[in-house]
């Protein structure tokens, strides 16, 4: 009996001791982490609200870059099971089937795959479905789950992706972002997802694009479901601001297509190009590429540096106009002054030209790009004056464009110049510049001496589309004088009209510019490499009122094309031709208006053809004759008598015998013909008979025309057709 009592006492003691230890572990030590679980029901946690990264647009509002949020979807099978147990009219398998159907309809994942996951034998109740659900898809899925009364849908932010509407176009300019998880001081334990720009525009303006994170406090019930509570505090996220660039996407495409073609045709290692508005400093297009780019993916291209701002090179003869401008300012030479340009022998150095000249006028030194001639001009200008002017134009320091990885180039301080420096720098050696620096210097030569701050950002808007800030042109300083600059423009136009850049000449617009064929430094930096050149052309147009500055450079083209006149110059010309026919480009109409000569149409109705032709010839009016009766009189004329018209346009005479023929003429002969489906040649012939000018794009069969068939057309009116 006593032994039983002792045994019972021992058992109870063990139970009491175990219970005490268990309570101690639960309430004091919290061995099972129950405090955290209970607190989750009463102490709110924080849910991160992720902002959208701002979009990027071109100057005309065309979206170049945007963001998409992606969410992860999970299904809590336990919630569905409990719901079906409470509602006996609901079947678990049918609810799985409906859930799978809803998700598959609004995503790329198949219903079969979703069902397989939901019916898997895993012990976990939370089943991962996918993490590639767009926000727009998620909204639809949530709505349909709610309408179908299906519980258990769990969704959380997963990631954000940048989408580039034009693929590889402007890849190096736009740059890329990097996704990572980081610790942030916003009161959460877990790392949060972040997207940072690492190069290009994405990096330069990362702070504007990023936006600010938000948060909201949340409570969970015992089944780990969110409890709605409008009284809980929250801080809304602020989406990133959108950038409107100065880039024109159509010009960008023209530039890249021609650089790509040039890179291949001239077998160059690299190509650089930039197009700017000289009056505002706005960058309209910029591109750089290497011969290895075709081997790279789009994302790899975005990670590469924008060589227009990061890669510098010796500009060669494109620097010569700066020396000439100083001589014009100081009135050291007249245009016709002759300078001995035979080989120039100095102490320890000989300067000579690729093609030896006996003597050249001051103007022709620039036109024919004489190193000897410009060296002698530089001696009169003086080293300090040349140094100061090049420094004023932006060489040797950053332009202020705020573009990522911008190089300062190389331009030594004046006190570091040696006995060779003055001559070398006058024709573009011992100095290196980026394509942007060179283009900005030519903007100054074109716009009347204003050194502009280059800009690629036109406007910033918030996520509501409201303008936050707009960027006006900034003049850093002004140099030179109008007379000297206007004279220099004449010289640079002559370079195109009859000098080293004659292949750039356009019949319908005046172009000015300068070629440069610069030797490349050896890798060891101790001299120049053999058969290794940079071919450059910098130019602007129209000369009377420059609106476009373009710089084209090919790095190490094949020796057959190493002269800029054989590579950079023809590429510049093709780019200019394509830009000038863009519907958004007003340069040609403005030039034509300035050059237009307007006269009044004389009255030639009732005259014989011979007399009518005599009247038109006296007034130097071009004409086309349409015969309905070769022995008749002028029964109609276009334009009508006393109407003002451009003397460059042809007038039309109709020869007939009575007024009825006039009516037929007016009814049928001033309507736009249907050119669609015709070959380009046939279309041109048909429109020529109607005296309609055609601007053709492409080759082959005409697929569209800017003036609809049957519409009345005016004399000399132009119709743009696209052929494929």
Task: Summarize this entry quickly.
By secondary structure, the protein is an alpha+beta fold. Residues 661-668 have low confidence and may be disordered.
| CATH class (first level) name of the largest domain | Alpha Beta
DSSP summary: helix tally: 24
CATH architecture annotation of the largest domain: 3-Layer(aba) Sandwich
Q: Which residues sit in consecutive blocks of at least 5 with pLDDT less than 50?
A: 661-668
Rough outline: flat
Helix content: 25-40%
Oligomer: single chain
Overall number of structural domains: 4
Approximately how much beta-strand content do the residues carry? 25-35%
Decide which structural class fits the backbone: alpha+beta
The total of beta strands comes to: 34
Which fold name corresponds to the CATH topology of the largest domain? Beta-lactamase
Distance between the termini: 112 Å
Molecular structure report:
The protein is α+β, with helices and mostly antiparallel strands and 724 residues long. The protein folds into four domains: 196 residues, Alpha-Beta Complex (Penicillin-binding protein 2a (Domain 2)); 343 residues, Beta-lactamase (3-Layer(aba) Sandwich), CATH 3.40.710; 73 residues, 2-Layer Sandwich (Trypsin Inhibitor V, Chain A); 54 residues, Trypsin Inhibitor V, Chain A (2-Layer Sandwich). The chain contains 24 helices and 34 strands. Helix 10 runs antiparallel to helix 20. It starts with a helix and ends with a strand. About 1% of the residues have low confidence.
């Amino acid at each position: 009996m006593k032994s039983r009592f002792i045994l019972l006492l021992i058992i109870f003691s063990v139970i009491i001791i175990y219970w005490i230890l268990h309570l101690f572990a639960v309430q004091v030590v919290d061995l099972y982490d129950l405090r955290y679980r209970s607190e989750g029901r009463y102490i709110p946690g924080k849910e991160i609200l992720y902002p959208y990264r701002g979009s990027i647009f071109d100057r005309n509002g065309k979206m170049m870059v945007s963001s998409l949020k992606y969410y992860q979807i999970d299904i809590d099978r336990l919630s569905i099971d409990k719901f079906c147990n409470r509602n006996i009219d609901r079947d678990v398998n049918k609810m799985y089937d409906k859930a799978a159907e809803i998700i598959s309809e609004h995503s790329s994942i198949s219903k079969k795959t979703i069902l397989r996951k939901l019916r898997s034998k895993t012990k976990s109740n939370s089943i991962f479905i996918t993490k590639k659900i767009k926000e727009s898809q998620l909204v639809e899925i949530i709505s349909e789950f709610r309408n179908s009364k299906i519980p258990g849908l769990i969704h959380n932010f997963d990631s954000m992706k940048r989408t580039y509407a034009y693929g590889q176009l402007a890849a190096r300019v736009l740059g890329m972002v990097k996704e990572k998880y980081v610790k942030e001081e916003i009161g959460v334990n877990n790392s949060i997802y972040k997207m940072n720009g690492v190069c290009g525009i994405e990096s330069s303006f990362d702070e504007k694009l990023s936006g600010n994170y938000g948060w909201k406090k949340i409570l969970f019930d015992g089944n780990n479901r969110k409890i709605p509570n409008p009284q809980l505090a929250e801080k809304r996220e602020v989406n990133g601001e959108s950038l409107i660039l100065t880039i024109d996407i159509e010009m960008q495409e023209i530039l890249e297509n021609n650089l790509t073609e040039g890179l291949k045709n001239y077998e160059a290692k690299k190509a650089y190009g930039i197009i700017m508005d000289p009056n505002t400093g706005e960058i309209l297009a910029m591109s750089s590429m290497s011969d290895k780019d075709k081997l790279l993916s789009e994302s790899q291209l975005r990670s590469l540096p924008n060589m227009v701002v990061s890669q510098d090179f010796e500009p060669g003869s494109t620097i010569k106009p700066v020396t000439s401008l100083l001589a014009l300012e100081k009135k050291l030479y007249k245009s016709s002054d002759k300078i001995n340009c035979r080989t120039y022998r100095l102490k320890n150095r000989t300067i000579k030209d690729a093609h030896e000249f006996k003597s050249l006028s001051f103007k022709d030194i620039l036109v024919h790009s004489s190193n000897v001639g410009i060296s002698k001009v530089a001696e009169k200008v003086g080293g300090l004056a040349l140094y100061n002017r090049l420094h004023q134009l932006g060489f040797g320091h950053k332009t202020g464009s705020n573009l990522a990885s911008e190089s300062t180039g190389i331009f030594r301080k004046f006190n570091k110049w040696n006995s060779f420096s003055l001559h070398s720098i006058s024709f573009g050696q011992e100095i290196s510049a980026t394509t942007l620096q060179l283009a900005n210097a030519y903007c100054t030569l074109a716009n009347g001496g204003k050194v502009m701050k280059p800009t690629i950002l036109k406007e910033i808007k918030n996520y509501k589309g409201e303008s936050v800030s707009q960027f006006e042109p900034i003049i850093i300083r002004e140099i030179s004088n109008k007379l000297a600059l206007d004279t220099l423009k004449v010289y640079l136009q002559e370079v195109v009209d009859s000098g080293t850049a004659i292949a750039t000449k356009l019949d319908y617009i005046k172009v000015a510019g300068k070629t440069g064929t610069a030797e490349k430094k050896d890798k060891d930096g101790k001299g120049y490499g053999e058969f290794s050149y940079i071919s450059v052309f910098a130019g602007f147009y129209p000369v009377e009122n420059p609106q476009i500055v373009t710089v084209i450079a090919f790095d190490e083209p094949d020796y057959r094309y190493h002269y800029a006149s054989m590579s950079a110059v023809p590429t510049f010309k093709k780019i200019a031709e394509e830009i000038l026919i863009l519907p958004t480009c007003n340069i040609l109409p403005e030039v034509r208006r300035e050059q237009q000569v307007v006269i009044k149409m004389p009255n030639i109705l009732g005259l014989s053809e011979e007399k009518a032709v005599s009247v038109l010839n006296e007034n130097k009016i071009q004409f086309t004759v349409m015969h309905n009766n070769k022995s008749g009189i002028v029964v109609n004329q276009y334009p009508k008598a006393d109407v003002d018209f451009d003397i460059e346009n042809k007038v039309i005479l109709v020869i007939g015998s009575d007024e009825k023929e006039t009516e037929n003429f007016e009814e049928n002969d001033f309507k736009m013909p249907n050119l669609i489906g015709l070959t380009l040649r046939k279309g041109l012939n048909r429109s020529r008979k109607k005296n309609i000018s055609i601007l053709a794009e492409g080759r082959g069969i005409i697929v569209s025309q800017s003036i609809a068939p049957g519409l009345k057309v005016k004399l000399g009116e132009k119709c743009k057709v696209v052929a494929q």
